[in-house]
Amino acid sequence: MNWAKLRGSLRVRLLLGTLFWIAASIMVAGWGLSSLFRQHVQAQFQSELTSHLDQLTAQLIVDAQNAPALQLPLSDPRLTRPFSGYYWQIDRVAGSADDVGALRSRSLWDHVLALPAPEPAAGDSDHVHIAGPQGQWLNAVVRTVQLDDTPGQAPVTFRLMAAANERFMLEPEAQFNGTLWLALAVLAAGLVVAAGVQVWVGLAPLRDLRRALGRIHSGNTQRLEGQFPMEVTPLIDDFNQVLAQNAQVVERARTHAGNLAHALKTPLSVLANAAQAQGDAPSELAHLVNEQIDIARKQVNYHLARAQAAAASRLPGVKTELLPVILGLVRVMQRIHAERGLDVQVGPMATDLSFRGEAQDLQEMLGNLLDNACKWAVHHVDVNARLNAHDLVITIDDDGPGLPPAQCEVVLQRGVRADEQVPGSGLGLAIVDDLARLYDGSVALKDSPAGGLRAVLTLPAATLSAD
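User: That's the sequence. What structure does it adopt?
Assistant: Structure tokens below.
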């Protein structure tokens, strides 16, 4: 795949730009929503632990033996279910009165939570990450309090802790992230499809414009036609104006060429009439004048045809159906060479073959080639045509003597004749070669399977219809 061509595609640019921003937006949105949800879960988790710790602090008392006790059990039933993942613990801080042991939730069973140093100051709370029972990892809130409820006794310092399994915080985050990224992936896929549809619909006028240009190129019309958006309409109007101006220039060139032909042919006719007025015994001068007038006429016709073809080859929207021209020329050749009894056959060909150019130029080229084949043929002349990619390939075969390979290129030059004994000016094949080149085509001479010469004329094709 040609990357340079893809980079120059408007469709690829729009899609790549849209896909980049979709991906960036999805990533930023996913990261932002995931962060917000994680903060929310953590806040809720810590709030629940703080609530347990507050209840624990409110219910804590010191009994007559100076040991910690709770007035009422905590309200959360999970604190009474063994290894439920929710725990609390009360420790006497070292250095206080006699250590009588710790008070723990039923959910801890016989496990004692070990807290890292340093301990928080009295009245403050701290958040720690510690190991729990059965390999659990806990997030805990720790608070140190002093109680002096017993008269005559020194204040007692206790460390209170409420803890919970951290998976209660991590699992909702993981589930939310999985659902979030799945939803964002579906959203991204929908946005990509929407972007593709938007680009396809948005560039539809350009496809219509391309088809309209194809109709001009194929010769079905001479201007851009169709309904186009207002953003493209000024371009269409300017292009149609250029096409109209081009057609006017070509028409003026043809008019000037016709005027030039008329201006030259009239004096030549006068000179020819003057030379013929010499009577039954024309002088050598009259013969020379007639000969030069004939050459001048042929040269004028040659250059005028070349100039007209040069203008027509650059005029869009021009085409000529091939089969009617061939059949018409074959009928003419059969009448011209009727006394020789030539068999001129047209092979099977598609009826929709068309030449992208002027009818008179096609008649000029095929007429010269057919006339040349009929001059040299012994019995048969065959004409065939086919479509090769975007080109018309027309072959004309005769069963005459043919030409040596060295002469096949030479006879295409202006003024060169294969046999001086056969009537002609040496301009016919040269005109064909020049006209074909003006249309970016070609003409080639080679050996024919029929035994004589094969002329292969390649010209640009035009279709009868375009999308």
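The first helix runs from residue 3 to 7.
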